Amino acid sequence: MPACRIMVKTMLGVEAEKEIIKIPLSDSTISRRIINISEDIEEQVIEVIKSGELFALQVDESTDISGKAQLMAFIRFIVNSKIVSQLFCCKKLSGITTGRDVFDVINKYFKNYGVSWTSCVSICTDGALSMTGSIKGFITIAKNQKPNINTTHCFLHREALVAKSIVNELKIVLDQVVIMVNFIKSRPQKIRLFFQLCESMEFDHYTLIIHTEYIRTLFIKRASFITFL
């Protein structure tokens, strides 16, 4: 906060600094503000959906560092001819994480806020059996509410499927990249050494870029990438 006051005073003057001083800094106050902001965003999203707007869901289940299963749902809808993406909810899953468990959590959230499945036009998930199972999968159960829901896999899952059928020349490169990435990411010390290597060579990035666009570029320049590593 002292550094922030100095910056504001330097850039905007004494009056702006006085406004910064008024900001409460207690843990409980900041916590309440964060909760208020999140609740306000949630209310705005729910209001738009309940007004009759169609929406698409992206659902994924993951385990946090404490070993608890967390279900995250993102929602996408159109407002004023613009596509808006928002975090819809993050709920803890208790017990086993079956498709029924996932559906029950989402469905309960819908009912609590009066959201109808009829407005859901698409669901995106990974390829896990709990999501895509033909009998008890989340998508199958959701289609009981609305049979014509479109379903898609996330892009990372699509690329994982494509990677299984790529030509041998590219598969060799991909396997080598995976081994190298896992080796560097296995220990914090290796990450720091890799950072120093990138810095000394004046490379564009000082850490591993895992997102797909960069990996695609690496395939195009596979020879120079392997030489660099």
Proportion of residues in helical segments = 40-55%
Radius of gyration in whole Å, from Cα? 23 Å
Name the overall outline: flat
CATH class designation of the largest domain: Alpha Beta
The ordered H/E elements are HHHEEEHEHHEHHHHH
Q: How many discrete structural domains?
A: 3
CATH topology of the largest domain: Nucleotidyltransferase, domain 5
Low-confidence regions: 223-229
Largest beta-sheet details: 5 strands, mixed
Number of strands: 5
Protein name: Zinc finger BED domain-containing protein 5-like
Question: What are the SSEs and their pairings?
Answer:
Layout: H1 2-12, H2 14-21, H3 27-50, E1 55-63, E2 69-79, E3 82-93, H4 99-113, E4 120-125, H5 129-132, H6 138-143, E5 150-153, H7 155-163, H8 168-185, H9 188-200, H10 212-220, H11 222-228
Parallel strand pairs: 1-4, 4-5
Antiparallel strand pairs: 1-2, 2-3
Helix pairs in contact: 1-2
Protein name: Zinc finger BED domain-containing protein 5-like
Describe this structure in words.
This is Zinc finger BED domain-containing protein 5-like. InterPro entries: RNaseH-like_sf (IPR012337). It comes from Sipha flava (yellow sugarcane aphid). With 229 residues, the chain is of the alpha/beta class. It has three domains: 1-45, no CATH class; 52-154, Nucleotidyltransferase, domain 5 (2-Layer Sandwich); 166-228, no CATH class. 54% of the residues lie in helices and 18% in strands. A five-stranded mixed β-sheet has the order 3-2-1-4-5. A hairpin with a 5-residue loop joins strand 1 (55-63) and strand 2 (69-79). Helix 1 (2-12) runs antiparallel to helix 2. It is flat and about 65 Å long. The two termini are 41 Å apart. 11% of the residues are buried. Residues 223-229 have low confidence and may be disordered.
